[in-house]
Write a structure and sequence with these properties.
By secondary structure, the protein is an alpha/beta fold. The chain has five helices and five strands; from the N terminus they run H-E-H-E-H-E-H-E-H-E.
Length: about 150
């Protein structure tokens, strides 16, 4: 009787392992992540830009992730075309080519008395505001990151 219990337990374990491996083999591939970066601190501009670049590098390029950067407050000053440093301009240009959404808060643009043409190329206006844009992105499944 004891041998029969051991045999039955062994066969059950093998069956469970087979069923689990078959279930894993039929799982859908992981979805492409969508990530929204929130930037409002002028002192963190280079840090966040570096984070986005590291993110792209870490997932194997822009084809493997969808990224949006929403900029408002004092951080937007770094993206004024007349004052932007060359390294930041280069990154923004590459991000634009990579399909990253660069959204500038329309409320901040108004308070800083600038238009889209005054920002580095590639920006779009978040017409209802930066925080509203972030909420919209989150409602569409974007993960929220505020480095």
């Amino acid at each position: 009787m004891h041998r029969r219990s051991i045999l039955w337990g062994t066969l059950s374990a093998i069956g469970a392992a087979f069923a689990a491996s078959k279930a894993n083999a039929t799982e859908a591939p992981p979805q492409k992540l969508k990530v929204a970066y929130h930037l409002d601190d002028l002192a963190k501009v280079n840090f966040v830009i570096g984070n986005i670049q590291n993110h792209l590098d870490g997932v194997g390029g822009p084809g493997n992730v969808t990224i949006a950067l929403v900029v408002h407050g004092q951080a937007l000053k770094a993206f004024h075309a007349a004052a932007a440093n060359p390294d930041l301009s280069r990154h923004v240009g590459q991000f634009t080519r990579d399909g990253i959404e660069l959204a500038a808060c329309a409320n901040t643009m108004k308070s800083q008395n600038i238009a889209l043409k005054d920002l580095l190329p590639g920006f779009v206006a978040a017409e209802r505001g930066g925080v509203v844009r972030l909420a919209e992105l989150q409602s569409r499944g974007y993960l929220y990151l505020r480095p």
